[in-house]
Amino acid sequence: MFAYYLRLALVDIRRNPVLSGLMVLAIAVGIGASMTTLTVLYLLSGDPLPGRSAKIFYPQVDPSPYTAPHIEPLDRMDYRSALDLWSAQQADRQTLVVDSLLKVRAPGVDQPPRMETMLSTTADFFPMFSVPFQYGGGWSAVDDVKHARVAVISADLNDRLFGGADSVGRTLTLRGSDVRVVGVLKPWRPSPLFYMVAGGRYASGDTADLYRPPENVMTPFSAGLEINDGNFQQFTCWHPPERPGHLEDSPCVWVSLWVELDTPAKVDAYRQFLAGYAAQQKSLGRFIHAENTRLRNLMQWLDFNGVVPSDVRLQNWLAFSFLLICLSNTVCLLLAKFLRRGGEIGLRRALGAPRRAIFSQCLVEAGLIGLLGGIGGWLLTLTGLWLIRQQQAAYADLVHLAVPMFLTTFALAVAASLLAGALPALRASRIDPALHLKTL
Amino acid sequence: MLSMQNISKIYRTDVVQTHALRDFNLEVKEGEFVAVMGPSGSGKTTFLNIAGLLESFDHGTYMLDGEDVSHLDDDGRSRIRNERIGFIFQSFNLIPDLNVHDNVDVPLRYRGFKAPERERRIREALEVVGLASRMKHLPSQLSGGQQQRVAIARALAGEPRMLLADEPTGNLDSLMARQVLDLIEGINSKGTTIVMVTHDPELARRAHRSVHVLDGQVMDLKAVPDAPRRETTAKA
Questions:
Q1: Residue from the list B52, B79, B97 with its beta carbon closest to the beta carbon of A350
Q2: Which member of B55, B81, B97 has the closest CB to residue A351?
Q3: Do B106 and A348 touch (CB under 8 A)?
Q4: DSSP string, chain B
Q5: What is the pLDDT of residues A198-249, one digit of tens each?
Q6: Could you tell me which chain A residue has the CA closest to the CA of B46?
Q7: How buried is B82 (Cβ within 10 angstroms: 0-12 exposed, 13-18 middle, 19+ buried)?
Q8: Are strands B193-197 and B162-166 parallel, antiparallel or unpaired?
């Protein structure tokens, strides 16, 4: 009977092209608006490390000298605490990260120097975060210790400086210091730039910057601090640093530490280790709030920082409210459409159609209108996403219609239209055949 | 075939109650052709709606084909309408967007027949009414008489035990009316019970017997045991 109902639905859509077109348009506009914002929300709220995020943790200690108890430790660590915890090697993997800006030039390449972002990190960064390589690879732990002058560069920088060729072994000049390229990344665009996320809760929802692209140059942490000495930015300080930009011995927090813990037992052990370290630092007189430590996993840390911009959430609510309005209109139009066919429905009932057959027929018609609305909604979604890509938001380049969202577009359109069609279909199935027979 | 005992039907609004049928009694034997006559508002259509299980009633008993159908649920009523009753309406009641074939197909779809069985029934029914060559025509492309013949084919396709006809020639000129009535008589001659509501005494004369309804009650009921008799009797 489904094929029969489908054929009847097509006949009726042809019979009332204006009314049907209005319904398709209402659903298409509602779905287009909803799916545009939902796609952005989906892209911004996804897991940046699927399958691994539960094993990646962000330790926090509280080195601040404030006597009032803190609700939460500061979002980054002071240099000494970070280096102590990293050097202890108590996790399966651990990495330090700090970013800065510096001038980059490629000797032998006829291009002017340019300011680029640099990530100073440690060897575990690449395997911990499953960073994909196009050429070469990361550096070793020995390179970290030896302050090796090596670098990994992004695919984008490699394209710009070396035309996308294998540049492993080539030299880059970073703020006057030569480093050897040991690896070139494949295009890599984690969303958000999770390993640099901090301070989201102070941003009043304006967190778009957490979706900026990764740094173009990566160097060993120790070498990076030397090369770009004096050009690092603190997260916060409780006294002004003696020499701005020189933060190793400053009363500032500015370094992030990430650890990988593969089992729950290791998580517990690391939590104890963190508490032990804080207690030890308190006994040394360096910490006041030794009890104020945290160990959140990656997704918990992203949630804590409220990484999804509040305007995206707001837009999503508005778009779905709009969809609701569109559906209300569709309910009214469907009701009018079905009841206008009271004579035909009465005849079908007289000829033996049970109520459920009329209900099914009307619902199939509503579903077909939803499907057509879904096609329109899909085109409008593509248009909406294109418009977002033209904006200046840091995440604009991330925006695209992924397969799950493409399928969701149609599922939502059909589900919405079935929902909108249920009441009119029920009303139609309750039509009194004797009363309506003479209206055909 | 059809037996109504003390059927009452009251239409209620907030301010008024209308007794459409009161103590309505009627027996129609299998194979009979009965004409139901009466002035407008006498209850003929209400009777036909109840007989066709399109409306419920307030009191009384309705036996159809030996089965008490007084208290059937909606599914049961739909099934009986589909399997045992054929309808012919004054205004043909064809679905304008469906062609002749698809109009005749409507009741068969709800019967659950497979496609070959439906096709056979549609073809045979349209052959009976002489419109097998017009299967792809839309109702608007047919004359009134042809449309009514399509409606008859639609009623016949389900091979009903009883045909209910509501002024089947009311919208036709005399020539077409005669053709349609010939067709109905032909169907009756093959054993299908026919109950026809009409205003027209000429048409009623072609039935085996006529029943007069006035103020929701049968005023005259005269059974004719044998073959068709073309006469009408009325008692005041």
A1: B52
A2: B81
A3: yes
A4: -EEEEEEEEEEE-SS-EEEEEEEEEEEE-TT-EEEEE--TTSSHHHHHHHHTTSS--SEEEEEETTEE-TT--HHHHHHHHHHHEEEE-TT----TTS-HHHHHHHHHHHHT--HHHHHHHHHHHHHHTT-GGGTT--GGGS-HHHHHHHHHHHHHHT--SEEEEESTTTTS-HHHHHHHHHHHHHHHHTT-EEEEE-S-HHHHTTSSEEEEEETTEEEE-----SS---------
A5: 998 888 878 888 899 999 999 999 999 999 988 999 999 988 888 888 888 8
A6: A434
A7: buried
A8: parallel
ipTM metric? 0.89
Size of interface A-B (CB pairs under 8 A): 60
pLDDT of chain B along its 236 residues, tens only?
899 999 999 998 888 888 899 999 999 999 999 999 998 888 998 999 999 999 999 999 999 988 999 989 999 999 999 999 999 998 899 999 999 999 999 999 999 899 999 999 999 999 988 999 999 999 999 999 899 999 999 999 989 999 999 988 888 888 888 888 888 998 999 899 999 998 888 888 889 999 999 999 998 545 444 434 444 333 33
List residues in chain B touching A: CB distance below 8 A: 49, 52, 54-55, 74-75, 78-79, 81-83, 87, 89, 91, 93, 95, 97-98, 106-107, 109-111, 154, 158
Closest-CA residue of B relative to A7 is B98
B31 token code pair: 């194979």
d(CA A256, CA A58): 8
Sequence-distant (6+) residues with CB within 8 A of A35 are: A377, A378, A381, A384, A405, A408, A409, A412
Cross-strand bridge partners of residue B214:
B217
Nearest chain A residue to B112 by CA: give it. Answer: A1
pTM for the full predicted model: 0.77
For B155, which residue in chain A has the nearest alpha carbon?
Answer: A351
Which residues from A are below 8 Å from B49, CB to CB?
434
Amino acid identity, residue A285? G
HSE at residue A22, side-chain half, CA atoms within 13 A, is 12
Q: Cβ B109–A434 below 8 Å, yes or no?
A: no
Contact A310, A318 (CB under 8 A): no
